[in-house]
Specification:
The chain is an all-alpha fold. Helix content is 49%, strand content 0%. The chain binds zinc ion. The site of zinc ion has 8 residues, from helix 1.
């Protein structure tokens, strides 16, 4: 495997010597030096990252909105980890 030709990028080269993200940027004529968002390899990693963000979030009043936003992201990541979209989860509720 060879690495992306963009300096400091540690992703695997896929297209024209660049990783997918940098290849797409090069095609669009976008800035190649801007940082690429870190992709989570697994659903567990994504869930874990958002749980850690909740734990690290300050509990003062100014952070209430951010905390609520993070709670929604935890719920979405947990459903994704359990391999259930919210719609699927709802349709699978036991009927009474
Ligand atoms: Zn790259």
């Amino acid at each position: 495997m060879s690495l992306c030709s963009v300096s400091d990028c540690l992703e695997e080269a896929r297209q024209a010597g660049r990783c997918f993200a940098h290849h797409k940027r090069a095609c669009r004529g976008q800035d190649l030096s801007a940082p690429v968002a870190k992709r989570h390899r697994t659903r567990f990693e994504a869930l874990w990252a958002v749980v850690l963000a909740v734990v690290a979030c300050p509990t003062d009043e100014a952070s209430d909105v951010e905390l609520e936003r993070l709670k929604v992201r935890v719920r979405m990541a947990a459903l994704r980890y359990a391999d259930k979209s919210p719609r699927y989860a709802r349709s699978q509720q036991p009927r009474t």
